[in-house]
Design brief:
Chain A: One of its GO terms (molecular function) is maltose binding. The complex is a heterodimer of chains A (about 475) and B (about 300). With about 475 residues, chain A is an alpha+beta fold. In chain A, a hairpin with a 2-residue loop joins strand 4 and strand 5. Chain B contains 12 helices and 2 strands. Classes of the chains: A alpha+beta (about 475), B mainly alpha (about 300). The interface between A and B is medium-sized, with 32 and 30 residues.
């Protein structure tokens, strides 16, 4: 038994030493109170916490700090469930392992659910008392989840000080979740095709006009005029990006009364340009594959506008494709109102219906995660997202990822519209297919989509966060 | 004079009564719990802004119903559904009948091999085969275009997207009709055929004058179950086209799925579901009526 305790303690110290080394600062001194009820102090008869029998462990974090020497739940055994959706088991296992190495009295049961099941099972589980104490959040499900979330017990100002975009998550002076990573679209290009076309780094386009010329050079047709290699393809759906590119013209996506606005000049310019690239420039056609991401990986498309997660998808599914990224072009060489929208990878939620003890442990895990640069870096690397935490934004390993590095110069010029309900993207998808494939008039398609979305939004509690954007004052009226 | 001992009816024994009562009760409870109560809940929910995931239940009156009947997308979906169900059912029956007749004939050898082959698609998981068909329909690497030497974008061309969904559905389901019809053919009275043959009836006449009329109950069974099933189809749409291009391949059940599990608008989805429920119930009733009349004649 003594040997087990010793082994656990040594493991905890080793892990924390490694983690603290990743942090910006190995702070000591005054520490924030741990999320443990004050009346539950550890006793010598309770399970050993490393801090009680060993040398004090270093405190993690700078503004948001985590003191691993503070016992959790008074050192008494406690069980909690941690739910997440399929696809990141190793990350959550690592988080749980690192946390329980410090607090062996906490027993975390990780529960994995497929994506679709997750969003029906989780809210129903949260309605009762047996739901998970802590769970993974996606801001697209904000409307269904917010009623079950307990606010973080970390001061909002501390979160704002360390995490980009935290201000956009403040609700009535409280934060229920924020972003640990920011994901947006970057232009992926095939390095070999780029070189074969005689292009160099100097040809990387900054404007859409330059981009169209490059796309033409990358397009290859056979003698009969059949497309062999597309210079640029958006087949299979570009709705997620169309919903970001109108910002380049200073056009917000939502009005001040939280209605969507699609039927405007900016959106028309964006869609017409996409259409012209196919029909006028001939850089691709609508029958040249149905999934531009896969087609890029398969080597039939030279450029593809993809979100950060595509970095890992390409690396895993198409390891022989040599690619790099450049920032999405803008209408002119000037820095636009915003290059694109971003969406955050969210931190975890705390179940307000869980017992007070479980909530306290969940809050402690949140603090452990937010103060811990090492584990956040793992999450950002795994999802290829730009770190929201300021201390990680110059991390060499993260900046080695092409889709992250190209954002570094202008990350403040990306806007978060808010937790958009699915109806927005769903209806824009329909609208684009009507325009691109069914030949529907653009004005009519935009008007129909705008009406359909606003009909749905009238039944939802959606609030645009565009007014929180740093450069909101530059938007068109 | 002693009265003869009354024979005990085994169906009225105490243990039999208890067993029957238990089984019937269990079935009633099952149907009430999983069919009757949900139907009433759906009907009740259609008058509310209802999202059980966040505990929302706000009374709306007839708003959801008004929206159903004024929605272009709903009527388009219903039109698509009627077309889809009619075509899929006709092909299922005709193809099933043709292949069952071929297998029933004396000319075909290794019949059990064909029966297995035809039935295999029916027992394969729909989602899995739908993903395989998605590759088959791909305009760049798809097998279908290569076989036909065409350049059709099956899933994104509004002229072919519904055809693609129908091809998958018919391929998946025709084997069921073959097996059921073949079973029906094997149970037909052979003496009628022998008599017809003696009277000089040819193969086509025997099929038309004997097989078809005698198989009518089986065919009606397939038609009714097919229509009910096809009015509830949404998985092929979800996997292949997501209702697109645009809304060209929206079916009623896919619209309901989208409203309920994508937009979490369970109230409106309930109103849509109830309309579909009434439609299917009327259709089933009509089919039974037609079937009953034909049996009388």
């Amino acid at each position: 038994m003594k040997m087990q305790k010793l082994a656990v303690s040594v493991l905890a110290i080793a892990l924390l030493a490694g983690l603290a080394g990743c942090g910006p600062q190995q702070a000591t001194g005054s520490t924030p109170p741990a999320s443990t009820p004050s009346d539950q102090q550890p006793t010598s008869s309770q399970p050993a916490e490393p801090s009680q029998s060993q040398e004090a462990l270093p405190v993690m974090g700078d503004v948001i700090q985590y003191d691993p020497n503070q016992p959790v739940n008074g050192g008494q055994d406690i069980d909690i469930e941690f739910w997440y959706w399929t696809g990141a088991a190793n990350l959550f296992q690592a988080l749980a392992d690192q946390y329980t190495a410090i607090h062996p009295n906490v027993h975390i049961t990780l529960v994995e659910n497929p994506w679709d099941d997750y969003w029906t099972k989780l809210p129903l589980a949260l309605q009762g008392k047996d739901g998970p104490a802590i769970f993974n959040v996606h801001n697209g499900q904000h409307d269904n989840l917010i009623g079950y979330l307990a606010p973080y017990d970390i001061p909002v100002d501390d979160l704002k000080a360390e995490f980009v975009g935290a201000s956009g998550h403040v609700i009535d002076g409280k934060i229920y979740y924020t972003d640990y990573g920011l994901m947006t679209a970057t232009m992926y290009y095939n390095v070999d095709m780029w070189a074969a076309a005689g292009l160099t780094d100097a040809d990387i386009p900054k404007t859409w006009d330059e981009f169209r010329e490059v796309a033409k050079k990358l397009t290859i047709r056979d003698d009969a005029g059949n497309l062999v290699q597309a210079g640029f393809s958006y087949n299979g759906g570009i709705q997620g990006d169309v919903l970001g590119m109108q910002y380049q013209y200073g056009q917000d996506l939502f009005t001040s009364d939280n209605k969507v606005t699609l039927n405007n000049d900016a959106m028309k310019s964006v869609i017409q340009r996409l259409k012209d690239m196919y029909l006028v420039d001939g850089v691709c056609d609508y029958n040249f594959g149905n999934n531009s991401g896969d087609n890029f990986g398969q080597g039939s498309v030279a450029m593809y506008l993809g979100w950060g997660f595509m970095t890992n998808v390409l690396a895993q599914n198409f390891p022989d494709t040599h690619f790099a990224c450049f920032e999405i072009p803008a209408p002119t060489a000037e820095v636009p109102y915003a290059y694109h929208r971003y969406n955050g990878e969210s931190t975890f939620g705390v179940n307000k219906n869980a017992s007070a003890e479980q909530q306290a442990v969940a809050q402690d895990i949140i603090r452990f995660f937010l103060a811990n640069d090492g584990i956040q870096k793992e999450f950002c690397l795994a999802n290829a997202v730009f770190p929201a935490k300021a201390s990680l934004q110059s991390d060499a390993d993260l900046l080695a990822i092409p889709s992250i590095s190209v954002l570094a110069d202008h990350i403040d010029r990306y806007i978060w519209p808010g937790a958009m309900p699915s109806t927005v993207e769903d209806n824009v998808k329909i609208m684009l297919e009507d325009v691109f494939y069914n030949g529907k008039d653009l004005d009519a398609a935009l008007a129909d989509a705008e009406k359909a979305i606003n009909d749905d939004l009238a039944n939802l509690d959606f609030t645009s966060q565009e007014s929180m954007y740093k450069y909101a004052g530059e938007a068109l009226d | 004079m002693n009265r003869p001992a009354r024979l005990k009816n085994p169906l009225r024994s105490r243990s039999e009564v208890i067993l029957r009562g238990t089984v019937v009760c269990a079935l009633v409870i099952f149907f009430v719990t999983f069919f009757v109560i949900p139907i009433f809940m759906v009907f009740g929910g259609s008058f509310f802004r209802w999202n059980p995931l966040k505990g929302q239940l706000n009374f709306l009156g007839l708003d959801n119903w008004k929206r159903v009947f004024t929605s272009d997308l709903f009527w388009r979906s219903m039109g698509n559904t009627v077309f889809f169900a009619a075509v899929a059912t006709v092909f299922r029956v005709v193809l099933g009948l043709a292949l069952a007749s071929a297998l029933y004939s004396r000319l075909i050898k290794h019949k059990s091999v064909y029966r297995v082959l035809y039935y295999l698609p029916t027992i394969t998981p729909l989602v899995a085969v739908a993903f395989v068909w998605k590759f088959i329909f791909d305009p760049r690497i798809g097998l279908l275009d290569q076989l036909l030497n065409t350049n059709i974008n099956w899933l994104f061309d509004s002229r072919y997207a519904m055809v693609a969904i129908l091809i998958l559905t018919i391929w998946k389901d025709f084997g069921y009709a073959v097996i059921i019809l073949l079973g029906g053919m094997y149970s037909l009275p052979q003496d009628c055929y022998e008599a017809a043959e003696v009277d000089g009836a040819g193969a086509w006449q025997r099929f038309r004058r004997l097989t078809l009329p005698l198989l009518k109950p089986t065919i009606l069974f397939i038609v009714i179950t097919s229509l009910i099933s096809y009015f509830q189809t949404y998985i092929p749409v979800m996997v292949l086209t997501q209702g697109g291009p645009g809304t060209q391949t929206y079916l009623a059940s896919y619209l309901i799925y989208e409203e309920a599990f994508s937009k979490y608008n369970f109230g409106y989805a309930s109103a849509l579901s109830f309309v579909l429920f009434i439609f299917i119930a009327l259709l089933t009733g009509l089919s039974f009526k037609v079937s009953g009349k034909s049996d009388d004649t």
